[in-house]
Prior knowledge:
This protein has about 400 residues and is mainly α. It is built from 15 helices and five strands.
Amino acid sequence: MNCPAIKVPASMPAEIMPWTLPSCREKNAEIFGIERIALICKPHSIAYGIPSGFSTGTLLDVDLNDPKKIIQFVERYGLPTTPYANQSERVEKRFISNDVFSDKPEQDGLDIWYDALNASERSAEISSNRDCALFNSFKDKGRSQGTEVANLTEGIRYKKEQVILLDDLVTTMAFMQLATLLFTGKAAYGDRAYDYVLHQVCISQNKDIFENRFSQLRWALQMIDASEPQLAVAKPGTFEMEEGTKIWVSDQFESIEIALATFIDLAINPYPERHAFIQEQTLRRMVNRNLNDQNLIYGSLTRAWAIQLLETLESHFSWNTCRVCGRPYKIRQQTMKAYVKQEDANEDRFKDRNNARDKNGYCCKAHEQRVRRKKDKRISNDQLDKAARKMDEHGR
Length: 396
Ligand SMILES: [Zn+2]
């Protein structure tokens, strides 16, 4: 029997670093000559983790067309920030200190953004990779670049606050939502995954936002509309796509997939591993953590989500389908906000559980309550009917 002399450590679960929960208000701000909606954020408390089931629950439920709903989400869970060009790190640093303004904010803001892109080995690599062209969405002057400019512009915020443009947040959220739909779809439904994702996009309140950020989806939906108009809105699996359409749709999805997988990976590992001189796997694992200390990883909601999504995909639990939204999930989300205590976050993340009782259930507490409220309403309507009938009988 192979008995190693040194006990080999199991691979470490990625560490979730804390991030800041802000309180937010909405404000219009002129950036690059165009009026844009911005969120002005003030640090409120520290989050140590997201509740189990968040990725397949609340995250997918947020209406990205409604700034009020986005603010409610951000105050409970934190800011969705992009790991591209190290935005996540800059946002956390700004919560500590952000007292610099510039008299040429547009130029300085762009300089900060491009310097960060080039300073990050991984981001620079992504920016020149054709498979990752979707990351250009963040470059937009109303998104991640615009956020840098807004923070340097005087008159938008107070010194203790920071600005993030709404369109910037919405773009990051669209990446997070679509990545979750796609990879959970592939894990739960295999061959029917693309069919499932198209169906979900079609019925989503965020359909236009997805189509705008991921033009491949728009083409795929148009193609299906032209050939089989009922397909996209039908339940996934009800209709079979023609072979030609299927191949074409798969090609579209494959180009999205690489970019979204890179996004998740970048959120977890913003720095390339610095141990190329050690080749041996066991030794690498053992020295890895010390070497990584040179680059402190900043926490963010995006990173916590990425880690949870991977843990969900890898866990041995079986997939369930929510009775309300029809989306796959493994663990039902019970707590509807981020944890502000380290102990609570750890207890939830490392809890021994079984998900057998989640069968035929709901992806989150909110969806269960929605059904219960409907039932209660039906019952009270029935009772009213009965009472009315009684009155009628008495009257006669
Ligand atoms: Zn649901």
